[in-house]
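Hello,

Our lab assistant flagged a job as stuck in the queue for most of the afternoon. It eventually completed. Since we weren't sure the result was trustworthy after the delay, we are filing this so someone can double-check. Below is the sequence as submitted and the structure that was eventually returned. Let us know if re-running is recommended.
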Amino acid sequence: MIQRVLLAGGTGLVGGLVRSHLASRLDVSATCLVRPGAPSGGHEVEFERLTEAPAALLGPLAPEGIDVGISCLGTTIRAAGSEQAMFRVDHDYVLAVAQGARALGARQFILVTSAGAGGPGFYLKTKGAIEQAVTDLGFERVDIIRPGMLIGERRERRPMEAFGQRLFDTLAPVMIGPLSRYAGIHAETVADAIVALIGHEEAGRFVHENDELTALSRP
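-- returned structure --
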C-alpha cells in the first residue's frame, strides 16, 4: 500500500534527511512543502497564506489526499528575530500544515518538537502548545518526536547550537536516567525513527524521546 505523505520542513537538519529517505521509498508518495526560494525543490508555499486557508491551498498539491502528515518545521528566537516571529513558525505554521493534512484525510500526524516540551521558558512552552493543538485536531494517531540536542550539520550557521553540541558530547557519560532525554542525538537517528513510524496503525498519542527514537531507528 502506498502511503501518501505530506512533509513540511524538508530543508532543515532533520527534515532534509527525512525527505531524502522518503525519496528512496517505493511505498511512499511524498508531497514536500518548501518556502518560496528554498534551495531544495518542492512545492513552494507561502506559509502566511497557508494559515488563512490550509485545505484550499494544499488540496491542489495533493488531489488524491494525504495519509500521513509530518512537520519538521522549527526555528529559534535568535533566527526568527523575536518571540512573536518564532511562535508564528513553530506554532501557527505547523498548525496550518496539520489542519491541511487533517482536511485532506490524514489519519496520522508526526510532529517534531523538543525534549522538555511544555516546560519553563518561551521556547518549551511554544513546543508544548503546538503538541496540544495538533492533538486536538482529532487525528487517529499522533506521534510526537522529542529529540534532545540534535547533532549534525545545518546549512545555516547556529553558533550556539554548535557550542551546545560540543558541550553535550562532553557531558554524554553523565546524562543518564531522566537526563538522557536531553542528551545529544544524531539527526540521522531522528529521521530514521520518523520514517519508521509512517503508517503505524495503533491509534492514540505517542511521545518518543531519545531512547525510543534510537530503538525505532534500528532496522
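-- support follow-up --
The delay was a queue issue, not a problem with the job. The result is valid. The chain is about 40% helix and 15% strand. The mean pLDDT is 90.
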